[in-house]
Give the backbone structure.
Amino acid sequence: MSDSKKSVGLLDILLPLAGIAAIVHLFFQFPSLANLSEMDVFPIVQEKGSDPARDLFVFTEPYFPETFELLSMDPDALLEPPEEPLGLERPTPEPNFYAGLKRTKDRLRKGESPAAALKRHNIDRFTRNRVIQQLKKAFNVRRCRAGEQFEIYLDSADRFRALVWHKGAFEAYEIRSDYLKPEKFTLAKVPVILEKKTIKTSGTISGGLIDSFADFGLDPKLARKFSEIFSSRIDFNTESRVGDTFSLIFEKYFKENVAVGYGRILAAMYCSRDGRCLEAYYFENDKVASGGYFTPDGKALGTSFLKSPLKVYRITSRFTSRRFHPILKVYRPHYGVDLAAPIGTPIMAVSDGTVCFTGWQRGYGRMVILEHKNGYKTYYGHLLRFARGIRKGTRVSKRQIIGYVGRSGYATGPHLDYRIKKNGRFVNPLRIHFPAASDLPQECFKTYLSKIQKLHPLLREHEIQKTIAVETEKIFGKPAGWTG
């Protein structure tokens, strides 16, 4: 008991002395502690051996990015890709070449050459020669016509910078002078800007189809295109009547507010006085590559044959087994129809086929015979001459010109003797029913129906003329479906 009391008394003396010694030690170490870095206070525990991966992330000085942005803490936002790829510069927009240039518009005068027109605008001789050399690469400058439009661009010092030459309504060529090398010229074909209007027109037949169209301000070219659409159903030379009505929706093109021609007829309708109507709608896609006109129920409007090889004619003799010949003065069969027309009128192939004869056939004069599918042959007699390239074995397409109306052989005037033979027997060309063309594929019908549902009510409106739509097009040539 006495030994334990002695040990406790000794501890009571040693503990206060240890505390005083520690305080004294800290007092003498304080200056060096003040200079310690955070790394010394919290040293990194080094493992034995080197770690190459760790060496890549050791920085000798603090790293801060050039731009610092507080990231969103929304997890979805953090996963979104950046708006544009990192490290790519924004492309510099191409400067407008014509900005600040003075433009002069003019037209070629009668008897004037392009070089003379440039000289009239004070373009120096060296520049004129270089410009004409470039134009010669695009077209024959000697065949430029009066009225062709051109634009000259000069800088603030009246130095030549560019020329745009409009070769007709659908072609334009640009010649530029390089800013850094003014003596260097470049030629390029540039797009032409046209305004396309979709127009609906209605009218009444008062005589011939062309004259009736003219009464409503429509061009004869549009009338001929209209007749071609219905050519396998209606012969407008013999079957149209005064009081019949027509309607059509077509495209018309304008350049700087001046009409330059017609595009495609999108929809057409012809109604007889008794109320019977024929409707046609244009449709094309990858299944109907060449495009065509169809009835509202998707049936092909056309047939594989035209009703007539001439666009305009007058019937002077019909199909008969007994006709008094005006020259031979005897009765004999006439297994065809005589179609009177001005001499030189183009004659069309009524269907796709092959030329099996060209030459002189006694009283028929110059004749072309075509062989078609399904046992058909067509005969064209009394020609003035054959079209270029028409010879035995030549393949011809529907509406291709094969010859011209004449009076060769036994003929009292210019006309075409037109005949059709089916399976070795002549038939009446005015009464024969030709096989129909291909109908609309079933997989296209839904798309076709959605299109005609927009055009059908417009076609039947009583309003005589109406502009349906106006669009702007950039083109490098004649528009698709160009009528002229």
Remarks:
- The mean pLDDT is 80.
